[in-house]
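STRUCTURE REQUEST FORM
Protein name: Translation initiation factor IF-2, mitochondrial
Source organism: Metarhizium album
Requested output: structure tokens
Priority: standard
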Amino acid sequence: MSPTPKYRSTNGQQAQSPSQTTSAPETSVASPATVLSSASSRTAHRKAITSELSQNPAGGAPKKIGWGSFSHRKQQVLTHGHSHGNDSTSSEITRSARGKPKSRQTQNTASASSATATSENGSRIGVSEQDFWAELDTRVSSLAEGKSKGRREPTATDGSNRTSIDQAPRKDEDGSVHSQNVALHHPVSDNTRGKERRKSRFDIEDEPASDQRTKKSKKSARGRRVELEEDWDDSSSHRWERKKRLKAEKEARKERALREENRAMPIFLPEYISVSNLAQALKQRPDQFLVDMEEMGFENVTPDTIMTGETAALISMEYGFDPTVDTGSQRDLKPRPIADDVSSLPSRPPVVTIMGHVDHGKTTLLDWLRKSSVASQEYGGITQHIGAFVVQMSMGKRITFLDTPGHAAFLSMRQRGANITDIVVLVVAADDSVMPQTLEALKHATSAKVPIIVAINKVDKEDARIDQVKADLARHGVEIEDYGGDVQVVCVSGKTGQGMPDLEESIITLSEVLDVRAEADGMAEGWIVESSVKQNGKAATVLVKRGTLRPGDFIVAGKTWARVRALRNEAGTELLEAAPGSPVEVWGWRELPDAGEQVLQAPDEGKAKTAVQYRLEMAERERNSVQLAEQEQRQREKAAAEDKVAEGADDDSASEPGILYQNFTVRADVVGSVEAVCGSVLELGNNEVRPKVLRAAAGQISEYDIDHAAASKSVIINFNVPILPRIKQRAEEAKVKILDHNVIYHVVDDAKAVLSGLLPMSVTYRVSGEADIIQVFSINLKGRVFKNIAGCRVRNGSIKKSSLVKVLRKGKVIFDGSIDTLKHVKKDVMEMGKGTECGIGLEGFGDFLVDDQIQTYEVVKERRAL
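Status: completed
Returned output:
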């Protein structure tokens, strides 16, 4: 007999059975371990129990029972055995719980042979081991927790977390089975039945999740541990998710960095750039950058080497950059395009420039015009430093006269393609006619395509030759009206005022024919006439050509800009605006502009600064381009020299024997002066010596010019440009000669003297004495050495011991050397005169014969000149 099982109450304590029962044979009871460790899967258990319970031996309708009904049937077997005398059902449930389903015949046989016991109410229950149900409940609870992670157990009526084993199916009179709550000590009331009968965690609808967990269990041990360990708290889960997120972000950053590394970084390069600046732009060390360039194939590279933008772009691509050669022309200011219909624009005063030789009365003519202007306006004298002024003519026409400060400004304007003046009045003196500077002014006016009016001045003089002046002008290409041309000729006198009204009329007539007009609105444009530093700041005279200039406007001229602080006319009166054709003095410049620069108005300060910065960059690029050209020239010269050395040839004298070259470096104030100086110097020379200009540019002498001149043995010509003290000191240290002049004729004279110094000296041989040999005798020197001495009689001149000597025999020179001894009797003498006799011993010669002649001579070297 097995011990009587102890029943579990609702509070989890054991309770004694109301009556003892006889247990079934030992073979009919399976241990909890056998039930739960069966080889059959949970699906097989469910199907077996469902098939057995759905047969319903009591004759009721088959009913599908889920995992939740298993707990009810288990409690029914535990408490009542065969419900209403049905032993077969109890035996089937017991065998199903053991995981060993059998056929129906086997089940009935086992059920008939099992021992039974009768309870107080007449029911029969199955007998099991004492701890079977306690261990089964523990196993079921553990299995439920493992299958539904995070889900709580259904609570019992007393609030304790325990498996629902108090529910047992009951059989109604019609044979249908219903579940009911069964408690050992207190039955569950009907009003809590629905609450206790919750959805079981073992119902069929939970199968997909169970199957899914089975599939996921095939993952790695680490992943399975993360999914199955339900004791992980929320913080651990968050840490794991955060770790995965950080790892993903790190991988993403690496990918982005790799993409950015592979992507070329854009870089903007100028048209010309030095190696040092390129290394800085590419963020490379200069010394390592030079090594890299040599590895790329560049030779003789220094930090100051200038390269083109295309070459720099190819180098930058080697460092992973996307280069773009930036010309930046859109940053500069440009004048407005000319209107299509100029006739619709308002008229402006014509600009008249008076040019000519300074000794031909140009200043006197201007003074007369100023006096007439001041007298008509009835105010005091005007400033002489102003280079432009407006004159109200007697006919009511306003004319702007321009006194350009020398030819340099006008030439600079012409080089920029600007017609700053509308009419040129060429002043020619009647007593001096056409001079070289007159022709130069005529050349400038013709090049600028400006109409000319010839004013023959000083006609009041007695020696005036008006017809000769006209003939000279016609001979130089001026088509005057008297000779069938269209150039007006007016005879005037700036001193007496003779012919001045005719000159005014000619100017007005020509201006009406030209019909000069300009826009009065829009951005202002003009030209710098002159500039100077005054007590109140930097000022520049601006001739407005288009638009209207007002105080507060931003203007740009050359490489500087200004915010117009004040506008003043030639009388010093401040103006509110300057219309086209008006010369005004502008104050407010950051730096002093150069004469001849174009003035353009900017919309704002930022645009003005941008334009100036661009022009400075362009100037730097131009200097770099010059240096680049010089480098290329030096490389070509070096390569040519190496080729000549390899071929065994000489320098330039190989192709032109006997020709020497003198190198020059030319610096002048403007480009026109540079051209004039170069042309004058290159005209010098002959078949023995010639000049060669290696460098020529406008501007001051630089340190590079000194170094280049020292290396190439050049002479620097500085024309009309001041020399800095440090440049002079450096030239003295380098022993470089500088020809500094303001007059081109002086430059030509000094250059001619330098070339003359290269000419070979003029050598002449002058005979100083002649003597005839009348006797030859031999004297004994020390050590039995004998020497022949020529006894001579001086026939012409004098014989000097220091003179060179020739020995002639029958008119042919047999010896040319020097005198060793000169004696009179036995006394050494320095000179013997005509008619005297003496003994002459020559150095290295003693083969004298009677009647030979001895001549003494002197070599005279004289410097030649071109």
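Reviewer notes: The chain is about 35% helix and 25% strand. The first strand starts at residue 7 and ends at 8.
Form closed.
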